[in-house]
Amino acid sequence: MSSSAITPLLDRWEMVVGLEVHVQLKVRTKAFCSCSAEYGASPNANTCPVCLALPGALPVLNEHAVGLATRAALALNCDVQPVSIFARKNYFYPDLPKGYQISQFDKPLALGGWIEIGARAEGAPIRIGITRVHMEEDAGKSVHDRFPGVSAIDLNRSGVPLVEIVSEPDLRSAEQAGAYLRVLKQILEYVDVSDVSMEEGSLRVDANVSARRRGETKLGTKTEVKNMNSFSGVERALEVEFVRQVGVLEAGGSVEQQTMLWDGHTGQVRPSRTKEGSHDYRYFPEPDLPPLVLALDWIAKVKHDLPELPAARRARFASDYKLGEYDVEVLTANPRLADYYESVARTHGDAKAAANWVMGEVLATLKTTGQDISRFRVRPADLASLLNLVRDGVVSHTAAKQIFGRMVATGDPPAQIAEREGLVKVDDDSQLAAWLDAVIAENPAEAERFRNGEKKLQGVLVGAVMKKSKGRADPKKLNQLLVARLTS
Amino acid sequence: MHDVRHIAALARLGLTDERAAAIVDELNIILGHMDELSKVDTAGVQEAIGVGAQGLPVRADQGPPFPLERSLDSFAPSLREGFLLVPRLSTHESSEEG
Amino acid sequence: MTARSSAIVSQEVAAGRATATSAVDAAIARAREVDAGRDGLNVFAWTDDADARRQAAAITDRLADTTPGALLGVPVAVKDNIATLTMPTTCGSRILEGYVSPYEATVVKRLRDAGAVIFGKTNMDEFAMGSSTEHSAYGPTRNPVAPDRVPGGSSGGSAAAVASGIVSIALGSETGGSVRQPASFCGIVGVKPTYGRVSRFGLVAFASSLDQVGVFGATVGDAARGLGVIAGHDPMDSTSADVAVPDYLASADADVKGLVIGLPKEYFPASLDPAIRARCDAAVEKLRALGATIREVSLPHTDLAIPVYYIVAPAEASSNLARFDGVRYGLRVEGDGLRGMYEATRSRGFGPEVTRRILLGTYVLSAGYYDAYYRKAQQVRTLIADDFRRVFESGVHVLFTPTAPTTAFPIGAISDPYEMYLSDIFTATANLAGVPAMSVPIGRVGGLPVGGQLLASHFDEARMLTAAFALERAMGAEAHA
């Protein structure tokens, strides 16, 4: 099932979506104990009395997790609450060691935010409300296929801090849901609170979706769709579930409030075994943790210290560097790339040249190697040096590309490479003349035709000289010399 | 009785029919005494949260981890290759219907 | 008979006139006398004479290079819901049978640091749910004063360990009176500190907002000495208060003259046993004679304490006891799939009173009932705390009440759960409000001990102890007659 199945329904039916996004915070240690929060240790290696829920163990909150959660909430335009309360969400599951998850319920960390999506492609930006942002702890992992007949529990992830970001049911299409997730991810990357990787599980999405007839203002019965592992998976799952719901409604049935599981392989949703009515989490204030009190001036300071957000950065790149919309979009895609570009542009001085290089050579190289810019071997200062060499006529543009290739391979500074590899531009008349004479001697027919007025052969001859000089010949001087030699 | 079955299921306590019937009576008597509270006017009264505490203290985001003097295999009922084992769950089996 | 005072033992060991080993040997000998056999008191869930002697020998070895601690060489019994490394921690429950904690409670660490020998784990009502120590998976404990009677509970084993003269100090835990009521029943001293005064890290949770480790002493001095060692801020417990700990032993020398002692009328109802009232009157007269000002006060919401307590405590317990699921530690009973394993483990592992309270707590938190029960109870709890705040703000320093409405009752006498709950009627208020409270012996009725309760405002244990030291001195032998 795909977009083709949904299109004919959209005249009569509208999709209503709200998203719940869980984001793992970038911390060294867990939310309530000092165990490492790092991924990849051997099973249950990162556990202690607290995250194993041994009798008598007690939680103590990680200060940095509060800082990151607050930063995230402020970046999403939420009101951070001076007093918020941790609550226990009670349910039994083997990867939930205490039998309850420490979360927040009726007094969450932050309320009432929004983000804007579709600011460019669809004209006017659409504002999507954010109901709340709250802190909670992650559960462990249940592995079902490791040993026959039993499930295997690894509690390394148990207690890793999360924020849950709950949107209003403001999204009206799968594309909007995808756009919301991309904007959200970008903002969270900018404020550096999480790795926000759906593939690695540091960002997880549950979707509440319902269908209603166009013109209807009441919300229909929703289902919760889970188990998507990519943004495009979310979009596909929403469409499939929407089509399913509309099918039920058009047949005169009613949608059952239930949890649906997305299967990315078959492209289908199926009901989970959960009965919605059986959920009774018995939330109550966590008595082991007094209310979290945040001083107003501390909240103000976190807000003041927020890094520049994507929208502001886009606006600034457009005005400061006179870049076009597309260039801005590409260069601000993530904060590391934007920082890289900006560093090159500032050091070098020519913003347009910097943009061309970063969007051209740099991104092409990263695409080939699959690397992230943060680990890119060519540091911004070195790239700026290379651009300076081009600007100052020390190396030709052709040579610069060769030098860049060597920089990627060796990490050496460009001047050193140019020197070592003999790529410094040659504007010495006698050397240029020697190369030119050799080329004329090797291509007597072309030289003759040029002499007789076939001007287009100038490029062929210059190219041959460039090749002979390994790109070092100063093209401007070479052209002058060629014309002088063959027309006089 | 339906309530008792429901809460016993929530609390993962198996009850024989006989015990469940007795529990209904016991809880009804106890809850009868609790009804005293419904007569108290608590309009505008804050719930007691964090009695005697002075706000939530926090810890720095650093190790070392709190040590276990004996490892998991000294007390875990069923452990293999470092994993805790439980009866097989179907994938995505829900928390409530497990 | 009482064990030698902790003050004397620690001084003698420090001075080299006695050894930790001799103190431990005395405790072992006394335990054999009273605890062994079918008619024994059943004080302990676990003792290990060899382990106690090893600890004592280590103290002797270290003597030269350490500053003598306040409990140097003093054997201290510890309730079986406090995590210890060398002995099991079972909470009187089948579900933790044989479980040895891989980490140690902060209070136990502090006892060791002060030179104490951890002498055995004491019997208790399962998960501290009870007022008689009859609800232990390991059989009831008997009252050393009257072996056919209960020692009170839930810390009945610790109370009996002190009352029978095995140790001079024992740790218990309080949620609604589990130290003070057995202290009263056994004729010893029992202190419940301010909520947050003593770390709960390593105390197996029953009701987290009410639980507090408490101390039994043969005398006020023993209890004060023990309290001084375990009190103080612990960064591992987020509800532990960072409030300076005064020298509680100095309270012995403070004057009660000028102390304003309030008698809350709600604790002396017309229905109060006249013999217990008479013992209270006598104690109050002693305090008045010492120069204290006695004033009648009112704590109007007192009669709501039991309904509030029996909503809040089971609610928290239902959540706190969810971790006993057979997955990571303790008992596991296989059943049909995961669900069957959970239900078999928990049904087999928990006794009837624990099951009852888990169900009650689950019910009051469940959808549709939360507001009527849990939220309401937490609001009334605020009113109860406000009662105390108002009285202490009005210039009253310490309150005096009976500790329990009765003396120790015969084993098996109370079968109705709610009737048992009423044992906590004078004690649960202090847990709900978080204030410190203690029980001191004020004589006997029909040969059975009666306790008088002293309460103070938050973190004012020192003034409460001042009144207790004075009362103890003034009562003299009358306290146990």
Q: Report the helical percentage of chain C.
A: 25-40%
Order of neighbouring strands in the sheet with most strands of chain C: 1-3-2-4-6-5-10-11-9-7-8
Please give the radius of gyration of chain A in angstroms.
30 Å
Strand count, sense and barrel status of the largest sheet of chain C are: 11 strands, mixed
- Helix fraction bin of chain A: 25-40%
**Separation of the first and last Cα atoms of chain C:** 14 Å
Assembly status: heterotrimer
Tally of DSSP helical segments of chain C: 15
Question: How would you state the average pLDDT of chain C, rounded?
Answer: 96
Topology pattern of chain C, helix = H, strand = E: HHEHEHEHEHEEHEHEHHHHEHHEEH
Uncertain segments of chain C of ≥5 residues (pLDDT<50)? Answer: none
Globally, the shape of chain C reads globular
Distance between the termini of chain A: 73 Å
**Whole-number average pLDDT of chain A?**
93
Number of strands of chain C: 11
Features of the shown structure:
heterotrimer, B: 98 residues, alpha+beta, two-stranded antiparallel ribbon, 2 helices, 9% strand, disordered C terminus, C: 481 residues, alpha/beta, 15 helices, 11 strands, 38% helix, globular
Could you characterize the architecture of this molecule?
The complex is a heterotrimer of chains A (488), B (98) and C (481). Chain A has 488 residues and is of the alpha+beta class. Chain A contains 16 helices and 17 strands. In chain A, strands 3-7-8-11-1-12-13-14-15 form a 9-stranded mixed beta sheet. In chain A, strands 6-5-16 form a 3-stranded antiparallel beta sheet, with no helix packed on it. In chain A, strand 14 and strand 15 form a beta hairpin. In chain A, helix 8 (335-348) packs parallel to helix 10. The longest helix of chain A has 20 residues, at 231-250. Chain A is elongated, with a radius of gyration of 30 Å. With 98 residues, chain B is an alpha+beta fold. A two-stranded antiparallel ribbon of chain B has the order 2-3. In chain B, a hairpin with a 2-residue loop joins strand 2 (79-80) and strand 3. The longest helix of chain B has 18 residues, at 17-34. Chain B starts with a helix and ends in an 11-residue tail after the last strand. Chain C has 481 residues and is an alpha/beta fold. Chain C is built from 15 helices and 11 strands. Chain C has an 11-stranded mixed beta sheet, with helices on both faces. In chain C, helix 4 links the parallel strand 2 (75-79) and strand 3 (117-122). The mean pLDDT of chain C is 96. At the B-C interface, helix 1, helix 2 and strand 3 of B face helix 9, helix 10, helix 11, helix 12 and helix 13 of C.
